[in-house]
Design goal:
about 85% helix; about 0% strand; mainly alpha; elongated; about 110 residues
């Protein structure tokens, strides 16, 4: 999962740098904005994913409250392995949303 995200981050940074240079703006600042929004998108998607997992599985609340890390980790590993493609796509979509936000702002910049 990490390798495709890093490749997409590299692609998005080079794309934003070319667009910023074509508009006469500093590419480094736009690359940093892309990286920041990229990881913020991953953070938001991961937060939504954890909220969905907790909502779908209310039996996890006692494990969290009692701080039973062994059983909670076993639950997480089982749940993530069962839905790996769906969860990976959700996190990747959050990352892409961060890139698209920076691209939109760059295109609207005068």
């Amino acid at each position: 999962m990490l390798i495709p995200i890093l490749f997409f981050l590299l692609f998005s940074c080079t794309s934003i740098a070319r667009k910023a240079k074509a508009r006469g703006l500093k590419p480094i600042s736009w690359i940093l904005a892309t990286v920041l929004s990229f990881f913020m998108g991953i953070f938001v998607a991961s937060t939504l994913l954890s909220l969905v997992m907790l909502y779908k599985n209310p039996a996890v609340y006692p494990l969290i409250q009692s701080q039973d890390r062994a059983r909670f980790n076993a639950f997480l590993m089982q749940n993530i392995s069962d839905n790996l493609l769906l969860y990976s796509l959700l996190i990747f979509t959050g990352a892409m949303g961060g890139y698209l936000l920076v691209r939109f702002v760059l295109e609207k910049k005068k």
